[in-house]
Specification:
The strands form 4 sheets. The protein has an 8-stranded antiparallel barrel. The chain has 3 domains: 24-170, Porin (Beta Barrel), CATH 2.40.160; 187-338, Porin, CATH 2.40.160.20; 355-506, Porin. The chain has 1 helix and 27 strands. The protein has one helix at 2-17; strands spanning 20-38, 46-56, 65-76, 83-96, 100-112, 122-133, 138-148, 155-174, 187-204, 220-232, 235-246, 253-264, 269-281, 291-303, 306-316, 323-338, 346-351, 354-357, 359-369, 384-395, 400-411, 418-429, 434-446, 456-467, 472-483, 491-500, 503-506.
Length: 507
């Protein structure tokens, strides 16, 4: 009997220790949309659309405060291609419990475009809104906001309207504990892909007729990213971002969101269709006020969790002089992320069907130091100008990660300048909390009269990373950006912070 008991104990111990155990922290989050009319002097007013993702509880002692990443883009007026990216902080408190709230916040970001009087590109947007929940997860908003480019000539006090969709962010950490954890019950599927978008067969446009360009742009190619999330009964939400790198239209961008439908044919083959709307413009492309629509259909191949998709569709500017066909080619990966809105703020989770995928998000200030060269307007580049950068990172192993990033000017004479990047980062630990890093990236950029040729760029840098705690790290990088065919070759210095957003995923 003793031997049997010992044998059973060994089996029980093996099964117990074969379970993966993690501490999961649930942070209430939201997707926030807003719209407002920005008054302009001597020209049509701008219709401004805002997108954002914001998280509560990043400061445990201040659960009503939120921090997030937001973008704003022109949809109407004459400044298509005016985009701004930045960060938001604010507070939300109830007026009538579980129904009516007030929301006060501040956005700081960089951007510009389409010759708008944006100065150095810094945009400041404080807001004070009332928010009423019409269901458990959806609210409607209205309030007052100020859109101000302090070094430019845009300053407008506005009424804004909008909506939010409640969601949650689940941050995971390894933990050693003898306490039994909860099992896994829910997963949310997301797909992250690198994207090549190619515009051709123009029915209208593509280029403005009142500017001098080097080519007729028979094709415009954009490099960017595609995010799909929230798969439910074959429907999903989609976000698409791209910047031009072929076609002599550097500075042309698109930021679109919408809904798609995917119909599986076999375990590895599917067809899908998407409808998207958003902002586009810049690079002397005839996009009117900036409002853009896309409809497309395509075929997808799946190999395990890796995805390849080709889609064909139509791109249209309803209030501009642009219409074309397009082909999208994307390559990415599918993740099934843990979710359970019913858990407490911190929960112990264990299962042999999960693992932790290490993601992180960084925001940083980038300073560019330029040599004695001239931009497209014949001016010598600023000795130094500053941008705000954002980076999403996925670790592949202990030493290599894949990264996507975007950088937006906010100080200097290049307020419309922006970049998008894809690449790899290498880590070399030098202590338990310090690591040496090295990066190599390629991407697309443009705007602000900076000479990038076709818009294709690459960068290399080295840096240091200091882990402050399990959630935050400090990052420092230096290196160089080079245009493939232009004369922009500045040295760079990045200083910023990194947020660990590691997730539990299904094996």
């Amino acid at each position: 009997m003793k031997r049997i008991f010992t044998f059973l104990l060994l089996i029980f111990s093996f099964v117990s220790f074969s379970q993966n155990k993690y501490q999961v922290e649930r942070l209430p989050s939201r997707i926030r949309l807003s719209g407002e009319i920005v008054r302009m002097q001597g020209e049509q007013d701008l219709g401004f659309l805002g997108h954002g993702y914001e998280m509560f509880g990043l400061i445990p002692k201040a659960p009503k405060w939120y921090f997030g990443v937001n973008s704003y883009s022109a949809l109407t007026g004459i400044r298509s291609g005016l985009f701004v990216f930045g960060v938001t902080a604010g507070i939300q408190k109830p007026i009538i419990k579980d129904w009516l709230y007030y929301d006060a916040g501040l956005f700081l970001g960089g951007g510009g475009g389409s010759g708008a009087p944006d100065g150095g590109g810094l945009m400041v947007r404080p807001h004070l809104d009332l928010e009423a929940f019409v269901s458990k997860n959806i609210s409607l908003r209205a309030g007052l906001s100020l859109v101000d480019f302090p070094s430019g000539a845009i300053n407008s006090f506005n009424l804004n309207v909008g909506a939010t969709i409640k969601t949650n962010t689940y941050l995971a950490n390894n933990i050693n504990s003898t306490e039994k954890g909860n099992g896994i019950t829910f997963f949310n599927m997301i797909e992250i892909s690198a994207l090549s978008m190619n515009l051709m067969n123009y029915k209208k446009g593509p280029l403005k007729t009142d500017v001098v360009v080097d080519k007729d742009a028979p094709n415009i190619s954009l490099l960017g990213a595609l995010l799909k999330s929230g798969h439910h009964h074959n429907f999903y939400g989609v976000l698409k971002l791209g910047g031009a790198f072929i076609g002599e239209v550097d500075g042309f961008m698109m930021l679109l969101s919408g809904v798609g439908y995917e119909l599986p044919i076999t375990n590895w083959l599917s067809i899908d269709a998407k409808g998207l709307v958003g902002g586009a413009g810049g690079g002397n492309v005839q996009f009117g006020g900036g409002f853009a629509t896309q409809i497309e259909a395509g075929v997808g191949l799946r190999f395990s969790d890796y995805l390849f998709n080709v889609s064909y569709g139509n791109t249209y500017a309803p209030n501009g002089n642009f219409e074309s066909n397009h082909i999208d080619i994307s390559l990415g990966k599918r993740f099934k992320l843990y979710k359970n809105p019913d858990i407490n703020s911190i929960e112990l989770v264990e299962s042999d069907k999960i693992k932790k995928e290490e993601f992180s998000f960084s925001t940083y200030n980038r300073a560019y130091f330029s040599g004695n060269k001239k931009d497209k307007g014949g001016r010598v580049y600023d000795d130094v100008f500053n941008s705000i950068g954002f980076e999403l990172e996925k670790k592949l192993n202990n030493h290599i990660s894949i990264i996507g990033a975007t950088v937006w000017a906010y100080q200097g004479n290049y307020g419309a300048y922006a970049e998008g990047w894809l690449g790899l980062q290498y880590y070399h630990p030098i202590s338990t909390s310090w690591s040496l890093t090295a990066k190599g990236l390629f991407g697309a950029g443009g705007g602000g009269s900076i000479n990038l040729g076709s818009g294709m760029i690459y960068q290399y840098n080295i840096g240091l990373e200091k882990q402050i705690n399990k959630r935050w790290s400090f990052v420092l990088n230096t290196g160089q950006v080079r245009a493939v065919t232009g004369n922009f070759t500045p040295f760079l210095l990045d200083v910023g912070i990194k947020l660990n957003i590691s997730q539990l995923v299904k094996n």
